[in-house]
Amino acid sequence: MSNPLLDFSGLPRFAEIEPAHVASAIDELLAQGRAAIAAVTTAPPTWDAFVAPLEDANERIGRAWGQVSHLHAVMDSPALREAYNANLPKITQYWTELGQNEALFAKYKGLQKSREFSSLGAARRKIIENAVRDFRLSGAELAADKKARFAAIQEELAGLSAKFSENVLDATNAFSITVPRERTAGIPEDALHTAREAAQKDGKEGFKFTLHAPSYLPVMQYGEDRALRETLYRESSTRASEFGKPEWDNTANIARIVELRREMARLLGYASFAEVSLVPKMAESPGQVLGFLDDLAHRARPFAEKDVAELREFFPDLQAWDVAYASEKLRAKRYAFSDQEVKQYFPEDAAVGGLFRVAQALYQVSIVPSKAPVWHEDVRFFDVRDRAGALVGQFYMDLYARETKRGGAWMDDAIGRRRKGERIQTPVAYLNCNFSSPVAGKPALFTHDEVLTLFHEFGHGLHHLLTRVEDLGVSGINGVEWDAVELPSQFMENFCWEWDVLREMTRHVDTGSSLPKPLFEKMLAAKNFQSGMAMLRQIEFAEFDMLLHSDFDPAKDRSALALLEKVRDRVAVLKPPAYNRFLNNFSHIFAGGYAAGYYSYKWAEVLSADAYSFFEENGILDAKVGARFRDEVLAVGGSRPAAESFRAFRGREPRVDALLKHSGMISA
């Protein structure tokens, strides 16, 4: 096919996709989608005549737009951004029309009440139940004038979220500072090498630092030049705010997003957007979530206050730009090691190989290099195969930061598992991180925190790849409650603290020796260093998010920033400077899927810690326990409620004790 976005015969043809392909492909696929909708509205309300053809058409739209969205996130360019933003309203309009189609809604309700429904498998019944729920949440029951307003809100929100994300990326890319050697004391040599190369590319002497994590974090953690740390902190914490270019200021976008979400909820008959957000989640109400967060905050506060007191005693004139630096110095003094020392034991191949060995031991699969068209020369591709050699799934791994890539780390699905006649369509995932690339002929080196991130994202990937569900709507991560979707990812992080795992996945970049046991014991002793501060910080963000989307009234309350300050007054033990505009780059809730859902990290951490405790009791790499986790959690995807999957694996309801133990807040 001349347009690679219209080819669904195999893997995406990334090497051939051009911005010029986007509009024609999307227009054609949307026309096919609308034709399919028209056809099935006169078909009998059965799975084969009604649901399956609709699923086929929508999968093609989702796969093509998913490739465009992925490239927009990892290889952004002016032409691609223009194509993405020009077609985003079309995509949004289509999904809104679909969700509000009364004839389709009636078909799903008819199928749910039909004799056929009880004869369908659990996965298909769940898909139909989810569809009926989602039609209601998409405004299918609204009057015509309200439907039109709902559709307009959806389109405007999609544009605002895309603009929010673009503003953050543009503001991040806009700042750099080049300094002489004398201002780089304390910064690790690998970070300096990258900074020197960056300056040379600009035709300058010295060392160039930016706001991208691989450049920013080493300065903040190790740089002795306090003024340089302050400059970088100020620039980072004011990105996309009134302190920069007006066209990149997200302040108005935030206000409008919150206002529109509130209006959308009211149209649907809910008191707040938070109530809408929680309908498909495990948590039942904003009050329940806030109670959960308050309980955790109460338990964590004594530890957080102790953490801050120790830090202020160690570094009396503590400012926001000193926290990472002072914390690293205090940890090095107390535990006699530094992150930089540990980093030398995690060259990329050793870390990635260790990750694969854990997955292979637990789930009895093999992970082997494979080939596929990619979007950048640094991207690698792998097959996941079962013990008989049959293909289970595939994934791309894009680990390094670059200017065309949005920040953070994330997993996304490229292709979902489903049965297509006699053939099973194998799932494909994207794993994206923002680590430092190799320098000076040496492999990329990862900090232990980055190894945790790698394991985390691969946990999401395994959730998608190891599913056994054969219906797209609930296979892999599809249909999983948002506040449970972090369970498999946070679960995987635990293996990064096990000696039997680490000794097999470390190799000193210079000497080739494994991580010494005494150094590991120091790491373990320091594992919960400042865990109270870290927990309260996450609770601060989660509580703000829930209050913003439940109690906040844009017409009465001053601003989202003022609300954050109120939350900080009650929750935080360290408050940032008044100029800090964290909200303006809080992409999780304004440009991602975490609106009224940021609490999910802590909610799912309770589940993941408790699930991992079963491995601790029975053997951390025990294949039988791994098989049980795969069978009861990973393999079932969203085909049943997450609470049922957890109970099936653990044999009981979740308990918070394991999380508190892992965080050092109760004794083992």
Helix and strand arrangement:
Elements: H1 20-40, H2 47-74, H3 78-99, H4 102-113, H5 115-119, H6 122-137, H7 144-174, E1 176-179, H8 189-201, E2 207-210, H9 213-222, H10 226-237, H11 251-267, H12 273-278, H13 286-314, H14 323-335, H15 339-343, H16 348-363, E3 366-370, E4 380-385, E5 391-400, E6 410-415, E7 418-420, E8 423-425, E9 428-435, H17 448-465, H18 487-493, H19 499-502, H20 517-525, H21 531-548, H22 560-571, H23 587-590, H24 600-618, H25 623-634, H26 642-650, H27 657-662
Parallel strand pairs: 5-9
Antiparallel strand pairs: 1-2, 3-4, 4-5, 6-9, 7-8
Helix pairs in contact: 1-2, 1-3, 2-3, 3-7, 4-6, 7-11, 9-14, 13-21, 16-17, 17-18, 18-24, 21-22, 25-26
Write up what this structure looks like.
This protein has 668 residues and is an alpha+beta fold. Among the domains are: 4-141, Glutathione S-transferase Yfyf (Class Pi), Chain A, domain 2 (Up-down Bundle), CATH 1.20.1050.40; 175-239, no CATH class; 348-525, Neurolysin, domain 3 (Orthogonal Bundle). The chain is 56% helix and 7% strand. It has helices at 20-40, 47-74, 78-99, 102-113, 115-119, 122-137, 144-174, 189-201, 213-222, 226-237, 251-267, 273-278, 286-314, 323-335, 339-343, 348-363, 448-465, 487-493, 499-502, 517-525, 531-548, 560-571, 587-590, 600-618, 623-634, 642-650, 657-662, and strands at 176-179, 207-210, 366-370, 380-385, 391-400, 410-415, 418-420, 423-425, 428-435. Strands 3-4-5-9-6 form a five-stranded mixed β-sheet, with helices on both faces. Strands 1-2 form a two-stranded antiparallel sheet. A two-stranded antiparallel sheet has the order 7-8. A hairpin with a 2-residue loop joins strand 7 (418-420) and strand 8. Helix 13 (286-314) packs antiparallel against helix 21 (531-548) and helix 16 runs parallel beside helix 17 (448-465). The longest helix has 31 residues, at 144-174. The radius of gyration is 25 Å and the shape is globular. It starts with 19 loop residues before the first helix and ends in a 6-residue tail after the last helix.
